[in-house]
Fold this protein.
Amino acid sequence: MKQSDSLGEARNLARRYFEQQSLFETEVFLPPKPVAKRLRVLRGAWTPLPLSLDEFEKQIHQCTRCPLGQTRKKFVFGVGNPEAEIVFVGEAPGREEDEQGVPFVGRAGKLLDQLLAEVGLSRKDIYICNVLKCRPPENRDPEPIEIETCKPYLLTQLSILRPKILVCVGRFAAQVLLGTKESMKALRGRLFPWDGAQVLITYHTAYYLRNPNDIHWGQEDFALLRRLYDEIQSSG
Ligand code: URA
């Protein structure tokens, strides 16, 4: 193993450790080398670190760490291409997503599909998930405690996915990932660096359902997404 590979591995381990501190209670490294098994205690059960999205979903899909775990119908983990270079992050499941357990399947999701199609992309080119995995009752805004509780899940998903482009759909995703309180007006259409990815901020598609005259902003943002994606593809 090259020195840069082992440094990269150490960095990944350290990052996962800090991201998951609030998710897992205890971390245990079991010798002997060369492959020390990494085990964590997740809600009282011995649980290996997730190596894939499927494994991670199995670990957390019965979560009741916040009150939304009592009111949801389905846990909405995320869907899409696990190899995708583009990951979309929305706010929280709505009524239809709660029914089906799949993100962005309602009207806002259909508009997102349309914006993707206009730039020659589709769901098979992306992975999509939300900041919150459970529906807030009556689609109210997420509460800070819900965001803090769910954030390690999103960060763990992103560390498994390692996207090149992260699209924040709406202010909650932007605030959670960038830690900013700037307005969407100030953030929209701009790119920010985030752990090896470029973050593109766009208004939530639900906003365009309410304000159809502004849809050209969404179209501009998706055109920028397409240009970024092409640049990434051509640079190998
Ligand atoms: N809005 C979101 O932010 N996420 C969904 O999954 C659906 C609507």
Remarks:
- Residues 90-94, 97, 103-104, 106, 108-109, 130 surround uracil (CB under 6 Å).
- The CA atoms of residues 81 and 127 lie 5 Å apart.
